[in-house]
Design a protein that fits this description.
6-stranded antiparallel β-sheet; 2 domains; Rossmann fold; 308 residues; 29% helix; globular; alpha+beta; 18 strands; Tumour Suppressor Smad4
């Protein structure tokens, strides 16, 4: 008889816009108890999810399931990197970029079916100044938006859009020096995004060719466009065609150093922070086990891309 899997579900009660009261009931009703031993914890403060995930690793849990958004996922996944414990996802945040990329259902019952199936794949993670991220990190305008969104009392797409529109009108490009692939590059840019997966969230795809298991980061250098072009750029983001625009330059690398002339805000999977003028981004290949739909795992295997 197969040994039951130990799974810890960690709920972030303040992420996203959906009511969390019924989540515990859904878990107990839909997780296969013949195959799994289930524990459920609710976070009480920032950083609590990391503590709970660390305890799960120490107690040899087979998986920790994050119920929240990309910030919650980052907090938990950071602890699971290079451990035998897998990450599971029940998307319940605002942008949910990683869940979109992995095709994880937003219906809680269907997402729990993925957990029951327990199909796993190894994915890359990345870091900036040794702080891990899973999907996307960035500097410039997107980091400013992340900072303002974190302060907002309302969540959801329209709150996010309002912040973008208001700040875009007054935002000026910044100067950056990049050391990438043994070359020094100078750029004036609206923002620079380092993409491990392909999107910010809300299905806005910044790096259409990014693969989360190819051993590379996509460096997306975006220029500011006139207001009358902004709608076109936004449309291309949602059509997964941003790379056809002349306003964006996309490079691939395993490591990149970015110098900025001030200690400006950086976002790490959507969470804002300050890390100094010098930022070193690195990929950490095949370093995290993740539970994903079988179809997604097959796509990641078929589309694995390792450029020279």
């Amino acid at each position: 008889m197969n040994k039951k899997k130990k799974i810890l579900f960690i709920i972030n009660p303040i992420s996203g816009t959906r009511n969390k009261n019924s989540v515990t009931d859904f878990i107990h009703s839909n997780v296969n108890k013949q195959q799994n031993i289930v524990d459920i914890k609710v976070t009480e403060y920032k950083g609590h999810a990391s503590t709970l995930a660390k305890e799960a690793v120490d107690n040899r849990y087979d998986a920790v399931v994050a119920i929240g958004g990309d910030g919650s996922i980052n907090e938990i996944a950071s602890v699971l990197i290079n451990t035998p414990t897998a990450l599971g996802i029940i998307p319940n945040g605002s942008g949910n970029g990683l869940a979109h990329y992995l095709n994880i259902p937003f219906n809680i019952k269907k997402a729990l079916e993925i957990i029951n199936e327990f199909n796993m794949v190894m994915i890359d993670t990345a870091s900036v100044n040794n702080i891990p991220f899973i999907s996307v990190a960035g500097i410039g305008f997107d980091a400013l938006v992340a900072k303002e969104f974190a302060k907002s009392k309302t969540r959801g797409f329209f709150s996010y859009l309002k912040i973008i529109v208001f700040n875009y009108l007054v935002y000026f490009r910044k100067k950056y020096i990049l050391y990438i692939n043994n070359k020094k590059i100078k750029r004036k840019a609206m923002m620079i995004s380092l993409a491990n997966s392909n999107q910010f969230g809300y299905n806005s795809v910044i790096a259409p060719d990014a693969r989360i298991n190819d051993g590379y980061l996509n460096v997306c250098i975006i220029d500011k466009v006139p207001v009358f072009e902004a709608g076109i750029i936004s449309l291309l983001l949602f059509l997964k065609k941003i790379d056809i625009s002349k306003r964006i330059e996309i490079l691939k690398c395993k490591e990149i150093t970015v110098l900025q002339n001030k200690n400006r805000v950086v976002h790490i999977d959507g969470d804002p922070t300050y890390l100094g003028k010098k930022l070193v981004f690195k990929v950490n290949p095949v370093s995290l086990k993740i539970i994903a739909p079988r179809k997604t795992i097959n796509q990641l295997t078929v589309n694995r891309d390792t450029p020279e």
